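ARCHIVE CARD
CATEGORY: sequence design from structure
SOURCE FIELD: tokenized fold
FIELD CONTENT:
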């Protein structure tokens, strides 16, 4: 699943990665703090628009995940239990950050994702787009919605609480088959081609420091 954002990239995101994760899922539930894995820190989110995050669907945090019937593919790391939601400039990975591209992209591991993660992805898009006076596209940049239009269009999902979203997700797990988004394989292929043409990135002393 992918969304694109365009806006004023001179503006700085005013919140940190923990606050963003809390908004995407929750801060504390029944006395237990959220547990999530992530790539990136406050500086990378605020200055570089880069952040990857994944809710840890652990029984210790939410007992209902113990009842989850995750379909396990040949590679267990590609089950719906592991859903990375990643924000970055669209050309950043391909070029090893030597080129950015015109748009930000938020993408998930899988093509179809659980409602608990879809809600989180939508919240990330809204928070980032709002911070940079941006617009959001969900049809590969063919059309753009204002933040308010996006909220209205997805109000059924956005109005859910975390607990409601998990209940729906547990039902979805009975039939939803994990399919890795072909975007990631294509990104890896394009990165290899880019490096063949431009060579490996060379870091100067200042970057290494």
């Amino acid at each position: 699943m992918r969304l694109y954002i365009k806006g004023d990239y001179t503006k700085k995101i005013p919140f940190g990665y923990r606050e963003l994760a809390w908004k995407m899922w929750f801060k504390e539930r029944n006395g237990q703090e959220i547990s999530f894995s992530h790539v990136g820190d406050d500086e990378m989110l605020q200055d570089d628009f880069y952040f990857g995050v994944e809710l840890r669907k652990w029984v210790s945090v939410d007992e209902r995940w113990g009842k989850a019937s995750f379909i396990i593919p040949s590679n267990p790391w590609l089950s719906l239990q592991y859903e990375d939601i990643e924000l970055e400039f669209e050309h950043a990975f391909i070029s090893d950050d030597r080129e950015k591209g015109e748009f930000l992209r938020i993408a998930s591991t899988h093509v179809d994702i659980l409602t608990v993660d879809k809600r989180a992805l939508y919240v990330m898009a809204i928070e980032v787009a709002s911070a940079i006076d941006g617009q959001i596209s969900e049809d590969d940049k063919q059309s753009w919605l204002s933040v308010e239009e996006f909220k209205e269009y997805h109000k059924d999902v956005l109005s859910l609480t975390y607990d409601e979203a998990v209940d729906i997700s547990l039902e979805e797990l009975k039939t939803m088959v994990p399919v890795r988004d072909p975007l990631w394989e294509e990104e890896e292929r394009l990165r290899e081609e880019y490096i063949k043409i431009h060579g490996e990135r060379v870091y100067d002393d200042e970057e290494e420091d």
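CARD ANNOTATION: The first helix runs from residue 17 to 24. Strands lie at 2-6, 28-29, 32-33, 36-39, 51-55, 85-89, 104-108, 135-137, 145-146.
SHELF: design records, drawer C
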